[in-house]
Write a structure and sequence with these properties.
Blueprint (H helix, E strand, L loop, with lengths): L12 E5 L6 E2 L2 E2 L3 H15 L3 E5 L16 H11 L4 E2 L6 H9 L5 E3 L7 H4 L3 H12 L4 E4 L10 H9 L2 E3 L1 H14 L6 E5 L4 H5 L2 H4 L5 E4 L4 H7 L14 H14 L2 E3 L3 E5 L8 E5 L8 E5 L1 H11 L4 E5 L12 H12 L3 E5 L1 H9 L9 E3 L3 H7 L5 H7 L1
Parallel strand pairs: 1-4, 1-7, 4-6, 5-6, 7-8, 9-10, 9-15, 10-11, 15-16, 16-17
Antiparallel strand pairs: 2-3, 12-13, 12-14
The structure holds adenosine-5'-diphosphate and 1,3-bisphosphoglyceric acid (X15).
The site of 1,3-bisphosphoglyceric acid (X15) has 12 residues, from loops.
Length: about 400
């Protein structure tokens, strides 16, 4: 992959794809880690006199403008971190974007509104994506791909725009790939992957390939219930991917065949509903009441998972063990984070919410070998998949 030092960007328009997908409560950013991680690249370009046009997504607004997913709070925070005001376009390719980009001077930064407000960004139709990509490409002379958390997405801003402009990999992308490479080149063993979180359907897909690479797979968070259901247990109102039950049964038998230890929760915190102050009880993972929802792993599972991490030499963790945003359901995530900190291992935490959880729970960031901005992106890299956003930068 080319690096940006190969381009003279002074006075030129640099179109930079970043991942600024941060957790929000209303319009308050609860963790700005991904914005901070994007700052050094932007500062470097500003320092070189570039006119920097940043493009990014927030959440999953499904191709339509939606004020709930506006990047306006992100523009404000980015400006604070850069110590300079950001010119924020209130649309992606419309009049506001045209005007903002047109007025940009060398050393200034603009941010376009959420790319996913436009159906072309995520379209499965190559022509529709290409048409949108051409409109984005018109805003730049050079493209920089630095949104590591989104490189696994075959989206217009990630995959199609770099085909239309001279392009380079950003510093964050290069740094992330360098760390993940250490996990794929002869990882020290035991190699343990811990999976949780809520993007169940996306992330179940990586398990098949991971089974050929790891020694142990610990599954908690919202991921666990599809496994419990696949074994025939009641999971009540918990997150469940019904259409993937057969696939999960396949993983369970494949794990046995390959001698991979697949470890599931033995108890969970079963809540009456999804709320901070919901009543809950600790129940066996095999006996979740039909009207209850599992919102965290239970105390016996915390111990079990910690014991499976104690002798690990390499660990990758993506996905909180429970709804850590609610104090009552944060102990599972805390226990896993602490077990990683204790382990004498090369430890990588990946994912917007997992990294946010580490900080929100007040745990030391330097207790981990690396905190990655990518969850799904890291997992797909580790399973050996070709990532569209990296392929596009290599071509
Ligand atoms: N049992 C559960 N039920 C519902 N949501 C859960 C559960 N466990 C974890 N979560 C949620 O998963 C979300 C993070 O998932 P995900 O986006 O996959 O992780 P990451 O951003 O680290 O890749 C958090 O907001 C957390 O509240
Ligand atoms: O938050 C992200 O991924 P992650 O939750 O796997 O870390 C990225 O911004 C990608 O978002 P997406 O999973 O909606 O495509």
């Amino acid at each position: 992959m080319k690096d940006i030092s190969e381009f003279d960007v002074d006075g030129r328009r640099v179109l930079l794809r970043a991942d600024l997908n941060v957790p929000l409560e209303g319009d308050v950013i609860t963790d700005d880690g991904r914005i901070r991680a994007s700052v050094p690249m932007i500062e470097e370009l500003v320092g070189k006199g570039a006119r920097v046009v940043v493009m990014a997504h927030l959440g999953r607004p499904k191709g339509q403008p939606n004020p709930k997913y506006s990047l306006a709070p992100v523009a404000k925070r980015l400006g604070e971190l850069l110590g300079a005001e950001i010119a924020f376009a209130t649309d992606v390719i419309g009049d506001s974007a045209q005007a903002v980009v047109g007025a940009l001077q060398g050393g200034q930064v603009a941010l376009l509104e959420n790319l996913r407000f436009e159906p072309g960004e995520e379209s499965k139709d190559d022509a529709e994506r290409a048409e949108f990509a051409a409109k984005l490409a018109a805003f730049g002379d050079v493209y920089v791909g630095d949104g590591f958390g989104a490189v696994h997405r075959k989206h217009a801003s990630v995959y199609d725009v770099p085909k239309l402009l001279p392009h380079a990999a950003g510093r964050l992308v290069l740094a992330e790939v360098a760390v993940l490479k250490k996990l794929t080149d002869e990882p020290a063993r035991p190699y343990v992957v811990v999976l949780g979180g809520a993007k169940v359907s996306d992330k179940l897909g990586v398990i098949g390939n991971l089974l050929g690479k790891v020694d142990r797979l610990l599954i908690g968070g919202g991921m666990a219930y599809t496994f419990l259901a696949a074994q025939g247990y009641e999971v009540g109102q918990s997150l469940l991917q019904k259409d993937q039950l057969d696939q999960v049964r396949g993983f369970l038998s494949e794990a046995v065949k390959r001698g991979v230890e697949l470890v599931l929760p033995v108890d969970v915190l079963a809540a009456t509903h999804f709320a901070e102050d919901a009543e809950y009880e600790v129940v066996d993972a095999t006996a979740i009441p039909a009207d209850r929802e599992g919102l965290d792993i239970g105390p016996r599972t915390r111990e079990l998972f910690a014991s499976k991490l104690a002798d690990a030499k390499t660990v990758f963790w993506n996905g909180p063990m429970g709804v850590f945003e609610f104090e009552a359901f944060s102990d599972g995530t805390r226990a896993i984070a602490e077990a990683l900190i204790r382990a004498e291992a090369f430890t990588v935490v990946g994912g917007g919410d997992s990294a946010a959880a580490v900080r929100r729970l007040g745990l030391p960031e330097d207790g981990f070998s690396h905190i990655s901005t990518g969850g799904g992106a890291s997992l797909e890299y580790l399973e050996g998949k070709t990532l569209p956003g990296l392929v596009a930068l290599e071509e």
